[in-house]
Structures are given as C-alpha cells and as structure tokens.
Amino acid sequence: MNIFKKATVIAACVIISIVINSTTSFAAVYKVAPNDSLYKISVLFRTPITTIKSDNNLTSDQIYPGQQIYVAAQEYTTKSGDTLYLIAKRYGISLNSLRIANNKWDDKLLPGQVLILPGVKPTTGSGTVIPYTTEEVNLLARLITAEANTESYDAMVAVGAVVVNRVQSPDWPNSITSVINQVINGYYQFTPVKNGYINNPPSDQGLKAAWACLYGSDPSKEAMFYFDDSSTNQWLWSKTVTARIDSMVFVK
Q1: Which one, out of 107, 209, 247, 251, has a CA that is 20 to 30 A from the CA of 154?
Q2: Regarding predicted confidence, which is higher, 62 or 216?
Q3: Given the DSSP bridges, would you call strands 248-251 and 241-245 parallel, antiparallel or unpaired?
Q4: Among 80-84, 98-102, 223-227, whose mean pLDDT is lowest?
Q5: What is the DSSP track for 16-80?
Q6: Does residue 11 sit in the same domain as residue 51?
C-alpha cells in the first residue's frame, strides 16, 4: 500500500469488514469454463443473456475460457462444519450448479472460502451507482490491485469505493478514468499512476472488488481519502475518521 504525505495526493476508501458467515455481494465474478456459452451461464445464474451482455458491455455472444464475467449473485463465506451439500440445500440450489459456478469438483472446504451462489440474487442494492465502461472496470481493478493486493479483500473494496465516492462528488471529476488519472498541482492522486504499477494486470480479487464498489458497496461511509496509520500528517489526522481497516485509515 502506498502512503501519501500530501492531501492532494491521497486517495482511497474503506470498507468495514462484515464478519458474518453469509455475505451479501452486489457482484460476483464467474470465470468462464471450456465449452461455456452465454446461454449456459444465463441458465446457471437465472439471468437473461441480454442482462449479462449489458452488465459486461459485451457486443457479441462470443466468450472464451478464463474470461471473467460479472453476474449478480449472492456469495457465501464458509465456516467450520460447512459442506457443499449443506450449503446447496440451505439456499435451495442444486449441488451440481454450486460446483459448476465455483469450478469446485472436490469436497474440501476451508473456513473463509467465498463461494458464488448461482441463482441466489443479492438481497440489497440494484444496478451500478456510477456509469462505467469495460476499460474503466479494468482500470479500477488494476488500481485496487496495485494499492491493496497485499491487504485484505475489505481493504481492496475500500480502495475502489473511494474512487466511486469521488466520481459521485461534485468536488471531483465525474468519471472513473478522470478521477484515477487526476493530477493536482503536479501531484498524482494515486501513486500507481505515477510509478506505472497501474499498468499491471488486475488480480481476480481486484476485479471482484471493483464490481462490488460499482454496485454500491461502501462501508467506508463516504470516505474520500486514506492513509497509512503510521503517517504523521496532522492535516489528515484532523479529518473525520470514517473507518479503519488493516493498517489503513479512512477519512473525509
């Protein structure tokens, strides 16, 4: 994680960890398997093909193995004693569909694993909160990965959420691209843009976090900045702390 020493070069946001076993997700990312088709995916997730294409800005029906497709589905974080069979039964889905959605063909589960629940719609939130393009989703995911890939998933969502918060605010640029690439008085708002790390490919978790932010996940409570808790910048510490996660402090 980068530590910004000046107010004009500090950017990020936060998400408060929700320590529960079943977690509502505004977005899940499904990895296309060999011989998949949009039709098969639409049946699996009980979502119209037109919706999948729209959500992913797809202009054709062509997809390829390994491609990451956003689907509106709830997720489940496993706990001790869970089995795939019990999870499937609890949520009224077939064991086979649970396996397909997660490419999970053995029965080994560890506490803390996150599974997509195919056909189980998120219980809160509907639609993205800001406009985006396919390129901007990737850009946001790359920023998240560069800033917080060694932090927890909550922190990764936090980084993306601050970008969304800024896009929504009249005090900042009104698009993902312009917020991330903004330079004020010679200072980059996000260090990965300056050092080039943002050009590295996003991780799966980074992409997942990006979609979560776009679909309204913001436990940061509208934070506009973040900094490392070792910072001695008094201007930052004088701001209202909205949340703390890992070694990151979020303020507005």
Answers
A1: 107
A2: 62
A3: antiparallel
A4: 223-227
A5: -----SEE--S-EEEEPPTT--HHHHHHHTT--HHHHHHHTT-SSS---TT-EEEE--EEEE--T
A6: no
